Amino acid sequence: IDLRDIAIPHLHRLVEETSETVTLAMTDGRTVYYLCRIMGSHPLQYAIPVGSPRPMHATAAGKALLAHFRPEQLRDYFDKVELLALTRNTITDRAALEAHLETCRSRGFATAVGETSLDVFGLAVPIFDVEGQAVAAVNLGGPLSRLKDGQARYIPAVAATAQAIARDISQFGVRLSKSPVARLPQEKGKRAK
């Protein structure tokens, strides 16, 4: 069963509740990919293309997943990935990012405040499979000016959506693929890299 088939009904309900753009994200261990996107109803929306690779250290979904990497996975990530600055807000220091990931893990969600683009805010909650592994994340994104100050009101809805998807994964006994890349839809005639 494709994770998207399980998640999309829940993501639609989250969009109806928040009016913001919602994405479903997975990682190949170094990069985060958005498997599907449902646009909100506000005139100004976050429109990241499906299949677009994004740096884990600078995105809410990426950090939500990184926060639940096993220690050896996290070491491998830091050994192989350069923490590039995309904006002045991007965390590029390993120790600072590790401390931030601990905060994300303890509070159960991650945020990205102008880290890939100065005017974008993201909030993400991991989705856990039946083995307790964070296999995907629900991400809500939009303009920083609209979302940052009101983020507290979105956290329960995003968390409830991630938990509902996890319950469905458990109910179906689904073992999900860790690498979504080969199954991503083609964009403009090209496979996402």
Q: How many strands appear in the DSSP assignment?
A: 6
Termini gap? 23 Å
Tally of DSSP helical segments:
6
One letter per element, helices H and strands E, the order comes to HEEEHHHEEEHH
Radius of gyration computed on alpha carbons? 15 Å
- Could you estimate the helical fraction of the residues in percent? 25-40%
Structural class computed from helices and strand pairing: alpha+beta
Q: How much strand content do the residues show?
A: 15-25%
Major sheet: arrangement of strands:
3-2-1-6-5-4
| Low-confidence parts | 177-193
Average pLDDT, to the nearest integer?
84
Main beta sheet: 6 strands, antiparallel
Shape: globular
Task: Supply the key terms.
193 residues, alpha+beta, 6-stranded antiparallel beta sheet, disordered C terminus
Summarize the topology:
Elements: H1 3-18, E1 21-27, E2 31-38, E3 53-55, H2 60-66, H3 71-80, H4 94-107, E4 110-113, E5 120-128, E6 134-143, H5 144-147, H6 151-172
Antiparallel strand pairs: 1-2, 1-6, 2-3, 4-5, 5-6
